[in-house]
Description:
The structure is a single chain. 38% of the residues lie in helices and 18% in strands. By secondary structure, the protein is α/β, with parallel strands linked by helices. The chain has 2 domains: 1-30, no CATH class; 31-291, 3-Layer(aba) Sandwich (Rossmann fold), CATH 3.40.50.880. The strands form 3 sheets. Strands 2-1-3-4-12-11-10-7 form an 8-stranded mixed beta sheet, with helices on both faces. A two-stranded antiparallel sheet has the order 5-9. A two-stranded antiparallel ribbon has the order 6-8. Helix 3 (45-53) links the parallel strand 1 (32-36) and strand 2 (57-61). Helix 3 runs parallel beside helix 9 and helix 8 packs across helix 9. It is globular. It starts with a helix and ends with a helix. 36% of the residues are buried.
Amino acid sequence: MAILDSWRTGTSPTGQKEKVNEVMAGLARRPTVLIVLHQEHSTPGRVGFLLRAEDVRLDIRRPALGEPLPESLSAHDGVVVFGGPMGANDECEWVRREIDWLTVPLRENKPFLGICLGAQMLARALGARVFSYEDKRSEIGYFPISPTPAGDRLCTAPFPRSVYQWHSDGFDLPAGAELLAEGGVDFPHQAYRYGAAVGVQFHPEVTYHMMCRWTVRGSERLTRPGAQGRPRHLDGWFQHDGRVAAWLEGFLPAWLEGRLGQAREPARAIAPVAAAPDEATAAEWADCVAAE
Length: 292
């Protein structure tokens, strides 16, 4: 602040003026990512933490609550559309309007990341089918997936092999899209790329605290065919989350900077590493126990 004050009053040496100019220019160059959430209390989770750590501004909008999406993304460097309990086939006006809006990032070739519902909405915008089963069979918990070579070349970090799921809908691979990861028979398409847009069926944004909240507030969904019991969710986080976090840390900068798929060789998968029970984890564990 002293540098700024002296610069405004004309008492700053030339070197300090140049430094202030560099700071101001740096602020002007900060990238902005549009964050689209679908519930009042939803958060961008780990995605938000990592973007903010990279000095990215987050412009958070909730279309389900009547907040408008921009007509152009000229003021944004990327878009992340998250999940929610609603479906891409729902007849809600705002759902149809949001799917139609996805032509904006596609037309402007902006980096786009669709997570779960976001990936399903993108699939529908690209003309693909989004489907569900009459018995409400689901993937809820940690499930194995099989990355394609293109998936492992997406960034320098290997694509995760076990990921956290919370969905009862799936999607067909859109025409012209590149498959990044495959799943089981019920939900065979787990991740895909279409130009600068990436859709993932799973939830890399989930933190331990979020998982604790979801498995309590959404406990009725844990009785659906294919859903895992709550202890398996929590145990799975310690077994698999380290690799998911490492992948997301490598993916987000490459995604935002337009460097996806530029890894010369497929990233090699590494052995699972259990998450360290640090202070944050301990606090989240306390929250999880309290939620019970």
